[in-house]
Amino acid sequence: MDVVQDVAEVFATLPMFPVFNACHYTLMILTTRYDTGSLALSRSNPLANWVASMIACFGGYILADLLLGHSVLSFLAHPEDVVLASAIWYLLFYCPKDLFYKIISILPLKLVIAALKETARVRKLVAGIGAAAKVYPHSLLAQVIVGVAKACGNEFLLNFEQAVRGVWKPDVNAIMQPSFSIKACVVGAVMIILGRSDVLMGISQEMVVLAVSLWLISVAVSMKAFHADDPFKPVENLFSPFIFGSADSLPADAHHHPAAAEPSPASKPPSGRRRGKAAKAD
C-alpha cells in the first residue's frame, strides 16, 4: 500500500506542461479539424479557425471561470500554453504535405496521445473541484458541476465554437447527447470529492485520482482502439425504463395533435349562391 501511495503522490505532482497539455491541444484541434467545413475555413478565414481552435483547447478554463465569476480570459495569463496550442494548430492545418497530421494519425501514437490527454483531463477535474470548493464549500453539486465543466468544457462550448466557424447545429450539444467523458467525469468527480472528505476510509485523495485516471485512460484508449460503444449505455438502457419510463408508457395524449378548429360560420366565405344574392342587393 505504501508503494501505491508513493506512486499516487508522484503521479499527482507530474507537470502538465508541456507534454500532457500538448496532447490535450492536439486532440482538441483534431476534433475541430474533423468538423464540417473546418479545412476550407482554415484557408478562407484563418483567424476564425484559430479562435475556434483556441475555444476547443481552453474551453474548460473558459467555462469554469464563467461559472465561478472569474474573467473568461484568465487562461491568457499562461501565454506559453497559448503559444503551444497555436503552434499545434498551425502544424495541424498548414504543415507542408500535411505531414504532422499524418504522423499523429498513426494509431499507436494516437492512443498514447489519448492516454496522456485523459491524464490532463483528470488533473483539470481535480483543479475545478478545488476551485469550486473555495467558492461553494458546502455545495457538493456545485463542485461536481465546475469540475466537470473544467474537464469537459470544450464539449459544452461546442455550439459556440461551431458558431465562430459559421456552423450552427443546436440539436447537437453535450446536454442532449453527453459523451462517455462527461459521464465518467461526473462519476470521477463524486469519487474525488468523497476522497477529499475522508469518506473513503484509508484511501487518500491521490490514490483516488490515480484510480480515476487509470480507469479513464483504459476505457478511452479501448474505445479508440476497438471503436467500442459507450460502456455506460447498457446500464442506462437497463435502468432508464424503470426510473424514467419507456416510450410505450407515454400518456395517451403525448402524440395527439388536435385537429385544426373548424372555422366558425361567420368566418366561412359565402357560397356562390349567397354571393350572387349579395351582388344583386348591391
Describe the structure.
The chain has 282 residues and is mostly helical. 68% of the residues lie in helices and 0% in strands. It is built from 13 helices and no strands. It has helices spanning 2-12, 19-34, 38-44, 46-67, 79-94, 99-104, 107-135, 140-156, 158-164, 180-196, 205-226, 233-244, 272-281. The longest helix is centred in the middle third of the chain and has 29 residues, at 107-135. Residues 267-282 have low confidence and may be disordered.
Highlighted features:
single chain, 282 residues, mainly alpha, globular, disordered C terminus
Task: Spell out the blueprint of helices and strands.
Blueprint: H1 2-12, H2 19-34, H3 38-44, H4 46-67, H5 79-94, H6 99-104, H7 107-135, H8 140-156, H9 158-164, H10 180-196, H11 205-226, H12 233-244, H13 272-281
What's the total helix number? 13
Kindly state the percentage of residues in helix. Answer: 55-70%
Instruction: Give the mean pLDDT.
Output: 89
What fraction of residues sit in β-strands?
A: under 5%
Question: What is the number of strand segments?
Answer: 0
At a glance:
By secondary structure, the protein is mainly alpha-helical. The protein contains 13 helices and no strands.
